[in-house]
Amino acid sequence: MTRPVISVDHVSFTYDTTPILQDVCLEVPERDFACMVGPNGGGKTTLLKLFLGLLQPASGRIRVFGGPPEHARCRIGYMPQHAQVDPRFPVSVADVVLMGRLGRAAQVGPYRRPHRQAAWQALREVGLDDLRHRPFGALSGGQRQRVLIARALAAQPELLLLDEPTSNLDVTAENDLYELLRRLNERLTIIMVSHDLGFVSRFVKTVICVKRCVVVHPTSEITGEIIRDMYGGDVCMIRHDRHRPPGDRT
Question: Which of 35, 179, 191, 227 has a 20 to 30 Å separation from 211 between CA atoms?
């Protein structure tokens, strides 16, 4: 049996005195395509940052690739919810994607050939190799999201974390982006935050519901019961098969 890519064991987290996550137990297997859903403020982005080692839990333990999250960052590609790239700034698509090599390239001087090759390969994977020299600000919303995913892929990760990658996209661009992620999932483990449950059930393997506590669902059945509990409305929802803590056979 292979070791899980991410293992979360009874983790809790607070901001100041406000509890955000409580007694979270979770395992993400290799090549999973998981979608993290839940209300605003429920702890989704916090959980992603814990996976990255950008935050430390108040209690419990997190392991990524078998070790502390901060030791696994070189194996993770991350696309934050609010990407720090101003579309008005005169930067090219190539410049943005090469940012994914920061930390791997030399501190001074131009990018060397292996770093450029990794960036161009990432652009080919997202279907934008022909726009390498285009100004980033001249792209459509869907193209910008693909460039930002390429930036994450340029790090040559084994785990891809995406925080609301389809926000502000039209239906066609959103569908194209999910198709891209489905192809990438053939070689990568993917966890993304999304509210688009109608699309989610078509593409992902696992749904992680986060509302202070965490419950994991397969996508084999969809009901409205849990979404009412999670969001307070009748929207598509996923079957409630509560995830057990590691080693719990009860």
Answer: 179
